[in-house]
Amino acid sequence: MSSKQGGKLKPLKQPKSDKKEYDETDMANMQKKKEEEKALKELRAKASQKGSFGGAGLKKSGKK
Questions:
Q1: Region Disordered: which residues (predicted)?
Q2: Interior angle at CA 50, CA 47 and CA 52, nearest 5
């Protein structure tokens, strides 16, 4: 009744999936998504160069 199997069980390997066939609408959607990601990346790069927005963050009073 006692088994010699100890430790963590390894998960069974999944069979490799075949390459999917994409039709024209899928390809168009993938292309559109890539373009949106590229535009977003460019905007992030631009925003990081400029610094903070507005410049009206914490204002210090002249009193001490």
A1: 1-64
A2: 85
